[in-house]
Amino acid sequence: MVRIDPIIVQVRRFSRFRPRRLIPQTASRRLRRFYAAARRQWRRSLQFRVVGITLLLSAILVSAFGFTVASLISDGVLNTQEKASKERIQRGAGQAARQLDGYTQADDPGLPGKMRVVATDLSSSMDVPDSEVVLLGHSPSLATASPDTSAANVMQEPSMRELRGLVVGDRPGTYQQIATLDVGAGPTRFLVVGTPIATGGEPLELYYLLPLKAENDLVEFVALVVTATGVALVALLALIAATMTRLVVKPVRVAARTAQRLSAGLLDQRMQVKGEDDLARLAAAFNQMAANLQRQIVRLEEMSRLQRRFTSDVSHELRTPLTTVRMAADLLFASRDDFDPAAARSAELLQAELDRFEDLLTDLLEISRFDAGFAALDAEPTDLAPVVRRVAERLESLAERCGVPLSVETPQDGAIAEVDPRRVERVLRNLLGNAIEHGEGKPVVMTLAIDDAAVAVTVRDHGVGLKTGEEKLVFNRFWRADPSRARQTGGTGLGLSISLEDARLHGGWLEAWGAPGKGAQFRLTLPVRSGDRLVSSPLRLVPDDARADEAALIGETP
């Protein structure tokens, strides 16, 4: 049996070649902007993503459903037409066989005329408009025996040879084929059904050409209805998705805006609570959290304010009695040679502790100024090379007393930057004093370097070093790695904290590196021009010798 192709809606194709138009530059730019805007919206909007995914999935689902429905309807219509056409041609074949029963020879002169009469009778009895009936034989005289010459000629075309071969072949029977034929009214899609007619003489062939215009119209109408329904359904699903998503996304957006305002310091911002659903409970919980945070922040701010005020007041109030005690201690220290050894030693200890107590009060006052936000930067162009050397000279006696070799490396051309020299010198003094105290008698190196954007100073010691995680703790107030360790310099425990605040006031960095048994290195990085933002440092935080040791352990070249 000839394979029957399903009826499909044909799309008109234009055979004329149309030149490809180049997209103008403005249109291409607009497309790129639209794509960038859509991509940005896709990343930022949850509602846009949900609606887009809903559109895509629903379009795929509706397209598959529409294609399935159209195919089933097309196959059903075609199967019905094929079944009816087979019954119709079998009745026609029986009628033709009875009328041609007396003609037993193909060369009978009355056979062609009789075939035309039979074909005309069959054609007049057809209930399908624009259908054609063709009655053919194998002899040349019977090749065009049909009431419609055009239809008979069409059956002689090469496209019909396969069907005719099956009708009168080794297994004769009723066969059908769908083909586009021109029988005088233009190309039309036909269902061609053929069957042999058994006569006493030469076998004849009967063909019905049934137009499929009504079936094509039905399938096209179904396709149009399915397409319109699918588009409407997809649009409705997108609208539903957008509406439902908005109900969920809108409170989330309000919560995000409220959280941003809270983070900006507007602690009185709250969400509006509507209803009693899950979103309402979320808004109520968010408001409760914001209220608790506001109370805690206000409480901490008040405690911090009281603490700063207490520190400042105590520091100021201690100045007066400390001055009196200092005068008495100076008098005792100046007369210590007249005392017995025990009293003279006590006077020396009193003088040293008073010096440390004065330094502690000075540091406390400085810390209170940083906490209150009253610290001011007096930046001016300064050559840091003399500053570094001056700090090293002032601590050289301490280094000799501790047995620590001290060296300084500075650029020959100097290092000029807009800094506050008093604060920078204080930072370097604290860093170098700590390095000497923890140097364990090993060399301490102070290095200065500068580039176009930043100036940096590193202080490297080879002492006890720092454990993992202590790089941040060293800048905490009164923090000590080993509380049982005796101080050599009589520090107050606030030096590195003040140094960190001085670096931040410059817009710079103060960082630490250390490893147990390998020493430590502190790096101060400041911008060359006051107010510039730092992005890099001219000196590495991790020393080169430490990097070489790590590379040697893993078998790599440093």
From TrEMBL:
It comes from Dactylosporangium cerinum. This is Sensor histidine kinase MtrB. It is found in: Cell membrane. InterPro entries: HAMP_dom, HATPase_C_sf, HATPase_dom, His_kinase_dom, HisK_dim/P_dom, HisK_dim/P_sf, MtrAB_MtrB, Sig_transdc_His_kin-like_C. Residues 246-298 form the HAMP domain. Signal peptide: none annotated. Its EC number is 2.7.13.3. The keyword ATP-binding applies. The keyword Transcription does not apply. Its main location: membrane. The chain crosses the membrane at residues 50-73, 221-243. It holds the Pfam family HisKA. It is a multi-pass membrane protein.
